[in-house]
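Bench notes, afternoon.
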Amino acid sequence: MDTGRKLTARRAQILEQLAALGPMRRGSVSEQLLPYKQPDGAIRRRGPYLTYTFKQGGKTRGKHLRNQEEADLYRRQIEAFRRYQELSTELVQVCQTLADLEASGDAGCKKNSRR
């Protein structure tokens, strides 16, 4: 199989994987321990509290999560977004290489026509 066909096949695989990702979100989930002062002056920590943080409008925003199940859901969605980023970067590289092959007049690289 020539380079153009291999790249075209890889592009199709990437697009299938992108279509299968499902819901996604940016950000991260972390556990927070919040300090508090007891009546005797001792400092203790409460928690852990599950928190989802993300950037919005150039600022970091946060949301407290209700339970571990919600945190697990958010983590899966965040992982889907990270996988999306990896796949989209690879897709751009593959498509650029295909474009370079087409521009160089490589006979093994056929244009994709959808009629």
